[in-house]
């Protein structure tokens, strides 16, 4: 299976989409590169929520491996999302290209790091990793499968979280130029925490609020006016992550001043008056001679 990400992760194909090597290679050849931001935490959460589910082809008895390929430093908290996957027994391999952050790769990857972290200077050099990485992956799967069959404790991955662990009915209200209110219906089994992630849809640094599981609403403030925001509410349990809620809404434009009036004209002065703009702390008044505009 493969997903691409920038600010909005996207599944290219599921684990069950192809059944032969030739089909997978053909799909890779037809893949269109997705440029943009680097929200690695959001991408890892997407993989857990969307790609490692039975209806996407994940088999309960199969080992779960995630290979992260990135060419930049994450713009959100990749470590928290990675730790959630690792706590569920999912092994992460991290491959960095060009401007990838080596420290972040080592933080995200599973132990032992000498087998799970790789870094190359440019994309063509990835070909040099294929042989070694293939051998390492196959060996790790055999080792983990052997532990399971010989009775060693291996954590089952609850890939099918189901409605018991997922909130519903996201409502966005009280939207202003700089704030909005989110509320949702909690799942039957309350989570330990909620991660609320929000960021402008056209790119920007994601922000995150972590709430206690008993809470089912939050006020987002200090937003940018007249901007479309993507919001996600993700329930986090001790050993699972429920399906996240997604929403899109736009903040209102800033209130403008109204009813401009001119009075008290003289040969070198005039008086302006207007109805105040709600929330404004200062006004900037510009004037120039018309029509050609002399000195401002």
UniProtKB/TrEMBL annotation:
This is COKA1 protein. Residues 1-133 form the VWFA domain. Keywords: Extracellular matrix, Secreted. Residues 166-255 form the Fibronectin type-III domain. PROSITE patterns: FN3, VWFA. SUPFAM superfamilies: Fibronectin type III, vWA-like. Residues 148-168 are annotated as: Disordered. Its main location: secreted. The gene is Col20a1. InterPro entries: ECM_Assembly_Org, FN3_dom, FN3_sf, Ig-like_fold, VWF_A, vWFA_dom_sf. It is found in: Secreted, Extracellular space, Extracellular matrix.
């Amino acid at each position: 299976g493969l997903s691409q990400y920038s600010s909005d992760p996207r599944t290219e194909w599921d684990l069950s989409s192809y059944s032969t090597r030739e089909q997978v290679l053909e799909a890779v050849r037809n893949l269109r590169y997705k440029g943009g931001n680097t929200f690695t935490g959001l991408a890892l959460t997407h993989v857990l929520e969307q790609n490692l589910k039975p209806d996407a082809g994940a088999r309960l008895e199969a080992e779960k491996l995630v290979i992260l390929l990135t060419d930049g430093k994450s713009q959100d908290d990749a470590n928290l999302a990675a730790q959630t996957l690792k706590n569920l027994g999912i092994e992460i391999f991290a491959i960095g290209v060009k401007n990838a952050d080596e420290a972040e790769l080592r933080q995200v990857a599973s132990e032992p790091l000498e087998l799970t972290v790789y870094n190359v200077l440019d994309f063509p050099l990835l070909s040099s990793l294929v042989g070694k990485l293939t051998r390492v992956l196959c060996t790790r799967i055999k080792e983990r499968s052997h532990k399971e069959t010989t009775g060693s404790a291996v954590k089952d991955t609850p890939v099918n979280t189901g409605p018991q662990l997922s909130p519903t009915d996201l409502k966005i209200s009280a939207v202003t130029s700089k704030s909005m209110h989110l509320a949702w219906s909690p799942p039957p089994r309350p989570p330990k925490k909620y991660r609320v992630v929000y960021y402008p849809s056209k790119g920007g640094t994601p922000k995150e609020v972590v709430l206690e599981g008993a809470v089912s609403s939050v006020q987002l403030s200090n937003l940018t006016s007249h901007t479309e925001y993507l919001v996600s509410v993700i329930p986090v349990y001790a050993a699972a992550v429920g399906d996240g809620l997604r929403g899109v809404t736009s903040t209102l434009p800033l209130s403008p001043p109204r009813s401009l009036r001119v009075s008290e004209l003289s040969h070198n002065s005039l008086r302006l008056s207007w109805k105040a703009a709600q929330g404004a702390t200062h006004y900037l008044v510009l004037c120039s001679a018309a029509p050609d505009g002399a000195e401002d």
